[in-house]
Design goal:
30% of the residues lie in helices and 25% in strands. It has 403 residues and is an alpha/beta fold. Strands 1-2-4-3-5-6-9-10 form an 8-stranded mixed beta sheet, sandwiched between helices. A 3-stranded antiparallel beta sheet has the order 11-12-13, with no helix packed on it. A two-stranded antiparallel ribbon has the order 7-8. Helix 1 links the parallel strand 3 and strand 4. Helix 2 packs across helix 3. It is elongated and about 90 Å long. Keywords: Hydrolase. GO terms for molecular function: hydrolase activity. Pfam families: Hydrolase_4, OsmC.
Length: 403
């Protein structure tokens, strides 16, 4: 993926800083605008992991710091919920001017509430996703309930949220009152995905129920079971990213995959960071990666797993193709392949302890109305699989630079 630092001004002329996450191999057709949680920033782990995952699936994702947070200008104490909504609209306008207007809005926690108010003012939006979002904003008051009297009396008070100190002004409290409930959803007739953890101790899952009841169809709910409010575990935010990518594909326009030069050409594209590699194979997009232990993000199979998968798939297809031609009833062919390097039993360098060859172990399970002779023949046919022939032969690979 490519990561670009961007900046733009909100309606007050305040400079906001953001990061645009892009696929490595092409300009995305669909852009996503991500709103982070209350007092968080664009570099917080949840928006970062979700954005990277979505970029690996072909989306462009903009996440930015709201006014007074992270690298953006302004003072947090001068911000408000309405100001956050205006920041989102400014971000959408920036995308529309420099790239393409966002077709998807994603919001985490208070950011989830903000996107519901912003959605009706961003015409390009085709789908909306909220993550652990409140249906009303009264739950925020518990963070500064003990200071409400001071805020009312002095106009502001300093409070602690998540171990950090912030000054909250009276207008922020008044703004919460104006944007109190899920009424915003009644104005939005766009597909909505609500993701919420039943174990969320900051914003209870009851809020998700309220949002779901208030929303128009089509609407979906997915439980983030076991996750905390902040999606602190990497696996939880990565899971959210994968689910979002699959869900939005039903409601947005997906461009046709560019034609490759030959029927069997595959393109793999890897950016400057990590090992998450985007693959175009025919009309299909895939992702390859390396395990976390060797510096990858484990967002897809590693290259040898892809090779093993090709052998397994080709084996099952070849057997079933032969059986159908013979009109033998085969209900299921299951092929397991594992890859390793093993010492060759017979080789020129057997005296060399380091001499090993690539080895694929293949196990096949056949289910159907088959006698022993048919099973024996089908197991022989497995060796006729084209990928098997390629791997067992000495293939030639030519390499040249392509501009």
């Amino acid at each position: 993926m490519k990561k670009i630092d961007v900046s733009f001004e909100n309606s007050e002329g305040t400079q906001l800083k953001g990061i645009l996450e892009l696929p490595s191999n092409r300009q995305p057709e669909n852009f996503i605008l991500f709103a982070h949680c209350f007092t968080c920033n664009k570099n917080f782990h949840a928006p970062t992991n979700i954005s990277k995952n979505l970029a690996s699936n072909g989306f462009g994702v903009l996440r930015f710091d709201f006014t007074g947070l992270g690298e953006s200008e302004g003072e947090f104490e001068d911000s408000s919920f309405s100001g956050n909504v205006e920041d989102l609209i400014a971000a959408a306008n920036f995308l529309g001017k420099e790239y393409k207007s966002p077709s998807i809005l994603i919001g985490h926690s208070l950011g989830g509430a903000a996107i519901l108010f912003a959605a009706s003012q961003i015409e390009s939006v085709q789908a909306i996703v909220s993550i652990n979002a409140p249906s009303n904003l009264s739950h925020l008051k518990k963070h500064f309930q003990s200071s409400l009297e001071d805020i009312e009396k002095d106009g502001s008070a300093r409070i602690k949220i998540g171990g950090r100190s912030f000054r909250i002004k009276k207008h922020f409290i008044e703004d919460l009152k104006k944007n109190e409930d899920a009424e915003a959803l009644k104005k939005i007739r766009k597909p909505l995905l609500i993701m919420h953890s039943p174990q969320d101790e900051i914003v209870s899952v009851d809020h998700a129920e309220t949002l779901y009841k208030a929303a128009w169809h089509p609407k979906s709910f997915i439980s983030l079971d076991g996750a905390d409010h902040m999606l602190s575990e990497k696996k939880d935010s990565e899971y959210a990213g994968l689910v979002i990518a699959a869900w939005v594909s039903r409601y947005i326009t997906i461009p046709e995959v560019p034609e490759l030069e030959t029927d069997h050409e595959v393109m793999a594209n890897l950016g400057a960071e990590g090992y998450t590699t985007q693959i175009i194979a025919g009309n299909h997009h895939l992702v390859a990666d390396e395990p976390v232990k060797v510096g990858g993000s484990d967002l897809g199979p590693n290259p040898y797993e892809l090779v093993s998968g090709g052998l397994a798939a080709c084996t099952s297809m070849t057997i079933q193709m032969y059986a159908r031609r013979k009109e033998w009833k085969v209900d299921n062919v299951e092929t397991h392949v594992s890859y390793s390097k093993k010492h060759a039993e017979d080789c020129e360098n057997c005296e060399n302890d380091k001499a090993k060859i690539d080895h694929f172990d293949r196990e096949i399970t056949l289910k159907g109305d088959l006698d022993e002779s048919k099973i024996k023949r089908l197991m022989e046919i497995a060796d006729k699989c084209p990928v098997h022939k390629t791997l067992s032969a000495q293939a030639k690979i030519t390499t040249k630079q392509k501009n």
